[in-house]
Amino acid sequence: MDVFFDLILTLSKWSRTHLHDISLAVMATALVLFGPALISWVRRSISHFNFVIRTLIFVLVCAIGFGCAMIYLTPVLVSAFAHLNNYTLAPVLVMVFILIGILADRN
Asked: Which residue from 29, 16, 20, 17 is spatially nearest to 75, judged by alpha carbons?
């Protein structure tokens, strides 16, 4: 049992030094998974507008919206992961990536 806890502690300490990269990977994967649904919702919502306005809104949502999500939501995710202690960080990260894998498989 001590070997298991030592493995969790070692993985958590390693993960803590790479939290920004891990959070960036989680955010990028979440945007890849949920981006098409968001884009199709925006496309349906603005379909009755003029072509120029539709194009402008679409560019704003895709370029600025997704870019701001990557820039501003990644530090929020880093701070959320940083609040976890060393016994919960590695299992939570493993579960997050398993959940992302399940969602990607269903998509």
From this structure: 20
**Six token digits for residue 25:** 């990977």
C-alpha span between 84 and 76 (Å, rounded): 13
* pLDDT per residue as tens digits for the range 22-38: 999 999 999 999 999 99
Cβ 98 vs Cβ 16: under 8 Å? no
What tokens appear for 105 in the block? Answer: 């498989």
Distance, in Å, from the CA atom of 89 to the CA atom of 78, rounded to the nearest integer, reads 11
Q: Which token pair is 67?
A: 């870019």
Q: Are the C-beta atoms of residues 79 and 87 closer than 8 Å to each other?
A: no
What does the alpha-carbon distance between residue 1 and residue 60 come to, in Å, rounded to a whole number?
Answer: 52
**What's the whole-model pTM score?**
0.83
Kindly report, residue by residue over 48-61, the tens digit of the pLDDT.
Answer: 999 999 999 988 88
Q: Rounded to 5 degrees, what angle do the CA atoms 76, 68, 21 make?
A: 50
Q: Would you list the domain boundaries of the chain?
A: 18-106
